Amino acid sequence: MTTMNPSPAQSAKIPYTTSDFATSPFVAFYEVTRACDLVCKHCRACAQPVSHPHELTNSQSRMLIDQFASFPKPPTLIFTGGDPMKRPDIFDLIWHATTAGLTTAMTPSATPLVTLEAIKRLKDAGISRLAVSLDGADAATHDVFRGVHGSFDRTMEILSNAASVGLTTQINTTITRRNFHQINDIADLIATKKIVLWSVFFLVPVGRGLAEQRIRPHQYEDVFEMLWNQGLKQEYAIKTTEAHHYRRYSLQRLGIEPENNGFDFASHGAQLANRPIKDRIQRAPLGVNDGKGCMFVSHTGAVYPSGFMPISAGKFPRQSIVDVYQQSEIFKALRDPNQLQGKCGQCEYRSICGGSRARAFCVTRNPLAAEPDCVYIPAALRTESVC
Prior knowledge:
By secondary structure, this protein is of the alpha/beta class.
């Protein structure tokens, strides 16, 4: 592959807002392969050592990327897996995406495939950010979680190599009962690694995650407090994934009480966004959720609201992913907070939180059910209980 600077179209990208939810995803995940050399206990994909025989071909993958670029507001495209580094044409696919005007990122597994030379090639192909996983403050905790001895040290090496070539990085951490007590230690450790974002993921019981213990509902509030305090002192930004009720927690800490489910995004969005990220990837607007500003396309072309909600809404290339996102009944339902059920449907924070739709589905088989891991009682229900 010839290396050259990626298209400048990325820098001209019009900012994404909540008004775009109905027509374009803010972020799209393309699972380029399920092949991976790790055996992570929480793996959504139940990744395997070799590629699936019906994995999208290079030409099909290019067509898919072109469809991502055809959205009214093209999403940030995340190449994921499995391990995307197991895909021989990954550099070509990244280059194709960046020349199509897409901002791209990748989540490789911490294996020997992610060499310094490979990181340089990723940067030359146009990747804007590399996201690596760290699930413990020490090697003992992380390596057991990832299923491979030495994974912790490889993660540290990848971060160092990325910094040496000027490639922006973020850390992804999956919270379980094994490691939630290490939140502060992890936060301080990664403060030395020049990352721009810490994405803290809360377990959804899907794939291998079925066998892994998620924390209890009241423990979310304890983790939220630790994350809030870390957000006040760390230079990197902090976000939660599949813990949308952290938005409610943050509003409460700021002393902001939504009235009649109203929320002034313009006034308070910046406060909830922690610190701005100074690279090409825009910070997600408040309200993004499974199927709402988010979509996922599997290695075989199945289209889902997210990688953690295995409800197939369509199939590429038989269907246009733009049509699936805009017209699929499940996507439309997930974007409508008035269709939420249980206490989420009566919650004053439902437009900006909405609970994890993926966790609700995996626990109850109903994607619109109440978030099962939230202890908050909506004001409407507190009023009813008094009457």
